[in-house]
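ugh ok so i messed up the first submission bc i forgot one of the chains. this is the corrected input, ALL of the components this time, i swear. 522 residues overall. if the numbers dont match what u have on ur side tell me asap before i send this to the collaborators (the ones from the other lab, u know who)
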Amino acid sequence: MEKPVVRLKGVTVEYDGHSALKDVSLTIYERDFLGIIGPNGGGKTTLLKVILGLIPPTHGTVEVFGKKPEKTRHRIGYVPQAADFDADFPIQAGDVVKMGCLKYLKFGREHLPDCMKRSESVMQQMGIWDLRGRMMGRLSGGEKQRVLIARALVTEPEILLLDEPTASVDSRVQSTVYEVLSQLNQSLAICLVSHDIGVISAYIKTVACLNQQLFYHGEKEISEEVLMQTYRCPVDLIAHGVPHRVLKRHG
Amino acid sequence: MELLQLEFFRNALMAGFLVSIACAIVGTYVVVNRIVFITGGIAHAAYGGIGLGVFLGINPVIGAVVFSLMAAFGMGTVSYNTKQRIDTLIGVMWATGMAIGIVFADLTQGYTAGLMSYLFGSILTISRLDLALMAGLDVLVVVITILFYVQWLSISFDPEFSEIMGLPVKRFYLLLLSLIALTVVMVMRMVGIIMVIALLTIPPAIANRFYTSLKGIMVLACLLGIVFTLVGMLISFYLNLTSGAMIILVAGVAYFLSLKIKPRGKRNQTP
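and heres the new structure output, hopefully the right one now
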């Protein structure tokens, strides 16, 4: 039996009276590759930030490695949306990757030199070594994405959380991103969120659907038939109860 | 060159030089963190302290420091915790601070015309004590920046990731706002509360167009600040115009001119 790494129980998040998440319960296990899809404003980013302890839930509990996320979140590799950053911000791609080493300022300075070396090999692995001196905001969407994934990997995470990893990336880059992720999945849990149903690639093991409430679909439904339909159907039409249904009705 | 024989002019030049250093460094953080409006709020809230200082008969600069620090902590705490509707709060503190200053000035008997100099600056009345305080602030700002350069860079770029990495993001944010508050009070002596934002933001904003590192922006912004204050002061002296306004005018013109210059593929500095 695999060990659970993240456990949410009855999590509700409310902002100014309206709720971003309603009674979400979710468990992520050691070798999971979970894809959470849902419309914009469905609470996907909020869910990731709750797991990271950046947003405290209004109700419910969050545990990461059996503890409060504030205590253990440095063991999570977080890949935020590449599009969220200021394009004029004066930072070079290499310095973004090295941000992953910052945690050793608090959690063991003796690991700092190793981490700096590791950041170089990770950059080579991700094919961004030649971009290290370029300004982050001047990179293409796919390049930024790889920089942010590299930054998360430098922290040697045990879980990887990705927010819209394939937005603004062409399909060729998308498949390389997924290949990298599925390799990583051999040693860590991955959870990604997206509004794009196309992310339900062959690599993802389980799919859940989030629109304030979480509908867990489990793994069986990703049959080839579902995938075929999935790729033809734009994600907005996955809203529950409309004719373009691609996943079965929630029980 | 007979100008340099005059002590007040030498002091003014020195002040321009010292203020440019603090402005360049703190201003760079203001620009890249997009907190220009918060900075404006802190500056205007400081006027309440000036009014109070005059009313109580103490040095108005002390009142300004207290008020601007209070405004910095107030806005910092609220903006850090909510991120929503912060602009409304800033606007309220901005105007309330000014109102407090004006009311205290009204309540003060006797001569209050000196209050105008805090609004529009009076570079030619800068004392040796002012210069010493400015130099002290420069040392503080430079030391903090050198010690925590990587942390400042990371927190400004991506505060959430920095928090996950265990950096004390909130403490750094409040420290930055406190430095802004102190810088604002220093710069206020030169160009006045109303134009403080310009001297903090214009030099880094121009420099940001040509450099891809915080360090590069800070150094270029510092040089630009020195040039703007020097040119502005000379023009104001020969044409007998308000020096603070002239400095800002020079900076503003330079900013709009810089928009015309195409950054030739930003200068890259390999680490």
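quick check: Chain B is about 80% helix and 0% strand. that seems consistent at least. The interface with chain A takes residues 32, 34, 84, 150-151, 153-154, 156-158, 160-167, 208, 211-214, 216-217, 266, 268-271 of chain B (CB under 8 Å).
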